[in-house]
Design goal:
This protein is 38% helix and 17% strand. It is of the alpha/beta class. Helix 1 links the parallel strand 1 (4-9) and strand 2.
Length: 357
């Protein structure tokens, strides 16, 4: 039986700091641990040599160039299956083929425009309507897609992402650029409004014996909003922005924080809480969108963002955690371990094989 060819549209892998970049890389790493003799998997990247150096001959590699996004310049190669690994990718196959679409979220309907003739929605509808099958990264992502779009009658699968922390790094020699001499809360993510950092900065006005450290690219508009909020409230010695951080720094902050805070109001999945749970840290999440699927019954949830209420919930739950530390930390680690990229990759491989049958 001749090998079938599968093209993974993974060009987002170049931005490893983003959720989609992480997804692309971890899915490839998961697939690398599996054997698949019946299919030939092709990867797409702006720097294919970096992937080839890491994964060798396990995959075939394609050089992504930004003009490939335009219809006349789409790749000419014919594949048996095209996997669009996120719903926003502008690169599409030139030749009709079987098509798997992975949907992370359709937040753009709520954040950009609900008008179906808007360019963003038209692009998504085009992908949706050519799908042979659809995978979602959470029950919430599926529900949200069905809420706003007429989804074609094709097989649908939910495949949870894995935990990005597969290796615990040695952080003993790490030197922090922000003060860590006081107990601190930690969070990490993109500086966009839906991450809702303002709520935890406002809460910090009521908490004097802890600091808050926020990591992520804060050069964006929302970064300026958060910096102003810190300055206006005189919290410069209590709330610290690190900017983007290395894996070592991220693990250091997660390992040493008192709790991990993630008040995001829109999340297709939400990887950072899983990473924090790997260290047995209590996680405080908003009860919105997919986050209850991530935290299960072992996380603590905020149902609204009133600073007084958030503070009280935090203090009460931390007291409970401290009294049952060994038991709860063990359950948190177990929860984190249940999200596994090798399992996720095997499920994607099963979907590929099902489509190609």
């Amino acid at each position: 039986m001749s090998q079938k060819s599968i093209f993974l549209e993974t060009h987002n892998i170049s931005n490893r700091a983003s959720g989609l970049g992480t997804f692309n890389y971890e899915l490839i790493k998961g697939l690398d641990q599996l054997s698949f003799d019946n299919v030939e998997i092709h990867l797409n990247s702006g720097k294919p040599n970096l992937l080839k150096d890491e994964f060798g001959d396990k995959f075939k590699y394609h050089k992504y160039r930004s003009f490939h996004r335009y219809k006349p310049f789409r790749p000419l190669d014919k594949f048996d299956l095209w996997h669009s690994v996120n719903q926003n990718s502008k690169l599409e196959p030139r030749i009709d083929t079987k098509y798997l679409l992975t949907i992370h979220d359709v937040n753009f309907v709520e954040e950009i425009s609900a008008d179906m003739s808007h360019k963003r929605n038209r692009l998504f509808l085009e992908k949706l309507n050519k799908a042979t099958a659809i995978t979602y990264i959470s029950e919430f992502a599926k529900k949200q897609t069905h809420q706003y779009f007429k989804v074609p009658d094709v097989p649908e699968h939910i495949i949870y992402n894995g935990n990005p922390i597969s290796t615990l790094l040695d952080t003993t020699n790490f030197v922090s650029s922000v003060p860590v001499d006081k107990p601190f809360f930690y969070t990490i993510g993109d500086f966009i409004e839906r991450k809702n950092y303002a709520s935890i900065v406002n809460m910090m006005k009521l908490i004097k014996n802890f600091n808050l450290i926020i990591s992520g690219n804060n050069n964006k508009k929302y970064g300026a909003v958060i910096r102003k909020l810190i300055d206006d409230n005189g919290l410069q010695n209590q709330v610290f922005l690190t900017g983007k951080v290395s894996d070592q720094a991220k693990q250091y902050f997660m390992k040493n924080c008192t709790a991990f805070l993630f008040p995001s109001i829109r999340e297709g999945f939400g990887l950072p809480p899983i990473e924090a749970m790997s260290f047995g840290k209590p996680v405080f999440l908003s009860d919105k969108t997919s986050l209850p699927e991530i935290g299960g019954d072992i996380a603590s949830y905020w149902t609204n963002f009133d600073p007084e209420y958030m503070k009280n919930t935090l203090i009460d739950e931390l007291e409970h955690f401290d009294k049952n530390k060994t038991e709860i930390a063990s359950l948190l680690k177990k929860r984190a371990a249940s999200f596994d990229w090798k399992i996720a990759a095997r499920e994607y491989l099963n979907v590929y094989n099902e489509i190609l049958k």
